[in-house]
Amino acid sequence: MQWETVIGLEIHAQLATRSKIFSGSATTFGAEPNTQASLIDLGMPGTLPVLNEEAVRMAVKFGLAIEAEIGHTNVFARKNYFYPDLPKGYQTSQMDKPIVGKGFLDITLEDGTVKRIGITRAHLEEDAGKSLHEDFHGMSGIDLNRAGTPLLEIVSEPDIRSAKEAVAYVKAIHALVRYLGICDGNMAEGSLRCDCNVSVRPKGQEAFGTRAEIKNVNSFRFIERAINHEVQRQIELIEDGGKVVQETRLYDPNKDETRSMRSKEEANDYRYFPCPDLLPVVIEPGFLDEVRAGLPELPGEKRARFEREHGLSAYDANVLSASRELADYFEQVQQVCGDAKLAANWVMGELSSLLNKDNLEIDRSPVSAAQLGGMILRIKDNTISGKIAKMVFEALAAGEGASADAVIEAKGLKQVTDSGAIEAVLDEVLAANAAQVEQYRASDEAKRAKMFGFFVGQAMKASKGKANPGQVNELLKKKLEG
Amino acid sequence: MHRLTLAQIARGLAAKDFSAVELSEALLARIGQFDPQLNSFITVTADQARAQAQAADARRAAGENGALLGAPIAHKDLFCTQGVRTSCASKILDNFVSPYDATVVEKLAAAGCVSLGKLNMDEFAMGSANESSHYGPVRNPWNTECVPGGSSGGSAAAVAARLIPAATGSDTGGSIRQPAALTNLTGIKPTYGRVSRWGMIAYASSLDQGGPLARTAEDCALLLGAMAGFDPKDSTCVDQPVDDYLAALNRPLNGLRIGLPREYFGAGLDPRLSDAVMACVEVLKKLGATVREIGLPNMQHAIPAYYVIAPAEASSNLSRFDGVRFGYRCESPVNLEDLYKRSRGEGFGAEVKRRIMVGTYALSAGYYDAYYLKAQKIRRLIRSDFIGAFQEVDVILGPTTPNPAWKLGEKSSDPIAAYLEDIYTITANLAGIPGLSMPAGFVDGLPVGVQLLAPYFQEGRLLNVAHQYQQATDWHQRAPEGF
């Protein structure tokens, strides 16, 4: 039987506010346990929450970016359950009236087609703390630093049909929240985590199959593997005559498998009700206008502009707009050198391989946009050839000079454009290869074309790569034909 | 000295008739002498009181002359007090020493009040007899066989017995007004949002409101003026200037329109209380008020609505008492579930458990619409009843309670009978309007209270009417024998 996979994702994005959603505590990651937990975060008797307006602003930014309706009246609700890292015994979240309503995000698939993924809603809530089970001699430790960190939970429609699409969607959300500056996107630190609702159905069937939810997957690679594994598990289960049960599962990256956490029957009744300590948040049209006016250029807009303004191909524009940092880097290079095509080639070529090799993000690139742009300028004005440029780039990457000019100067890589000097080199090369010259002159046009490259190569070698290739071509042709 | 009201104390301190230290010492001695009969204090903070009194005298010597500078009070034990046990009269918080002060505590301390300690109450403010305290019941100074009312029963008993001139209380369904009525005091529940709830341990967040209990309306005005005001730490606190309550006291009552809700005078009201209320109305008429009957038709649904909403909120508010971070933890838990079950099972008393279970049930999937949502609808109806009534009248007047104080243990086996004692007070909490109870006579030697209700933020009007009434009557000046 042919099976179709149906996936819906719930992404938790930690909002990059300086303080928590309901208290003034800092949200910095990695501090000593419980040093960023105020009376409120500890759930001390008598304490009350006060909403951080910045979290609302960030959620609204996201809503506007996915063209969603923004709730006029926002109600926070309590989700009641007991857990040691949930200090109040309830999580303050949103239920009936989320801040962000229906919207969508377009994703580009591997084959270049664009697919629209519906977003059901996105709501604000507070994160819980962490239970630490190591080093306490049979007891558990509680770290409440993370308790109260603002989260935006982004719920997609079940529009996703494969693990690869799921990854493309999460990457698009990741890029978007970073573009908006509302989440640092650091998945290793848990700033962006993903619950995957996965089901399968026979191809052509309308009704959804029973879904399982895989909790808290925190890397692109694990999302793909967890979903693929779960799809396989469900298909095998059904084909063996079994039934998928609705349950929560956990992905174990070490064993590459998902296992059951709890079934629907064991699920909590969260007893949601409006939080009486927080008044409904009314979002006025003026606030929306203000946030809208402050929105940065979004990935889709940037992609279109790169094609339009810089004449980039759709593929190049897509790659270069994938992250705001990469796009900014590219545009800086372009501004310095004034050549979008060369800038794009260098950023996507040499620079990308350099970063990949050392596993670096663009903001930690050893070659700055100004350095790269300056180097491309020297290619354009014939100071160096493309081949020498690679040497210059490597030297810049190794920190061997403050600028391309400094490297060129120090290493004497300046291209020779003095035709007298080039002619002298050519004369030497031709003299040293008299036999080949004879052969060349005796050959027909086709053969000559092939041999020409040999002389160019010899000439470049003799000039240690510094001779201007254009001039070498031109003068060489004259000498051989003449 | 113990017979002085706050206003008299202010004049005495200003005239240097006595010092704050002398006054506090005298009252601490009285607490030591009389409180064993009443059990109104959970914690007496004598050392802290002496230090605060000395500081107040020093501030006065340095030229300050605030009306509350050196005034002795005590706090209901649900207001968090830094460095002092804050128990909510519950075993679960018996070992809880608050790391911070409630806004009310902070504001009164800043005004110069001297806190003599923490007052007994019903556990987590759940009750109307002050019989559910982990520290034992409080007795009514007017008859120590009787309850003082609740939940601010310790506050009421201590002030009525002249152990302190005034106290803080909190009112979720009548917990200031009902004990004030049963002990011959004046107590005011302000408009919801008038007094900060920061540091006031929550029972039902959408209904809870702090306020003062004292022997006169004037003293309530003094204290409320210092307690009220916007607090950025409480999102439900209203950012609106506080009226000058003292200045409002002396307005004449000419033309005051009083509404008597017919629903308040039906079956269930002790006819002797009804007579006392009508006598009070006659006095107010002589002072220039006009009286008309009004209707509050949805009042009949108030108790069921309250006993859904308040327990629902409480069931969630009390989840934080789990034995993990503070408060009571059971002996040697074997696992997490055992820790939760036994810490809470052993830490909470019967009434608190009853309300947590009722609230949990009301919020459960499948019951939410039938209970919680319906109760919220009733709440809106009750609010619109009041808004409608206040189109026609300035204040609403009626009995505070259907009966005078009852004997200890008389209603403790019948929670419904106890719940019905709140029938006249609960609507003000559901609507969020301010309400005041004032002394209006006696039945069998037990005090009778009259309740006044006013539109939002008209606390000044309530204090004004009560003050004018107290200028014309002396019920409020009567003291219980033996104290």
Automatic annotation (TrEMBL), chain A:
Keywords: ATP-binding, Ligase, Nucleotide-binding, Protein biosynthesis, Transferase
Molecular function as annotated in GO: asparaginyl-tRNA synthase (glutamine-hydrolyzing) activity; ATP binding; glutaminyl-tRNA synthase (glutamine-hydrolyzing) activity; transferase activity
EC code(s) of this entry: 6.3.5.-
Pfam families: GatB_N, GatB_Yqey
Taxonomy, superkingdom: Bacteria
Record's catalysed reaction(s): L-glutamyl-tRNA(Gln) + L-glutamine + ATP + H2O = L-glutaminyl-tRNA(Gln) + L-glutamate + ADP + phosphate + H(+); L-aspartyl-tRNA(Asn) + L-glutamine + ATP + H2O = L-asparaginyl-tRNA(Asn) + L-glutamate + ADP + phosphate + 2 H(+)
Signal peptide positions (record): none
Gene Ontology biological process terms from the UniProt entry: glutaminyl-tRNAGln biosynthesis via transamidation; translation
Primary enzyme class: ligase
Function of the molecule: Allows the formation of correctly charged Asn-tRNA(Asn) or Gln-tRNA(Gln) through the transamidation of misacylated Asp-tRNA(Asn) or Glu-tRNA(Gln) in organisms which lack either or both of asparaginyl-tRNA or glutaminyl-tRNA synthetases. The reaction takes place in the presence of glutamine and ATP through an activated phospho-Asp-tRNA(Asn) or phospho-Glu-tRNA(Gln).
Assembly description: Heterotrimer of A, B and C subunits.
Family: Belongs to the GatB/GatE family. GatB subfamily.
Record protein name field: Aspartyl/glutamyl-tRNA(Asn/Gln) amidotransferase subunit B
TrEMBL record, chain B:
Domain annotation Amidase: ranges: 22-463
Catalyzed chemical reaction(s): L-glutamyl-tRNA(Gln) + L-glutamine + ATP + H2O = L-glutaminyl-tRNA(Gln) + L-glutamate + ADP + phosphate + H(+)
Annotated EC: 6.3.5.7
A single MF term (Gene Ontology): glutaminyl-tRNA synthase (glutamine-hydrolyzing) activity
Cellular component terms per the entry's GO annotation: glutamyl-tRNA(Gln) amidotransferase complex
Similarity annotation: Belongs to the amidase family. GatA subfamily.
Name the record gives this protein: Glutamyl-tRNA(Gln) amidotransferase subunit A
Classification of source organism: Bacteria, Pseudomonadati, Pseudomonadota, Gammaproteobacteria, Pseudomonadales
Gene name as annotated: gatA
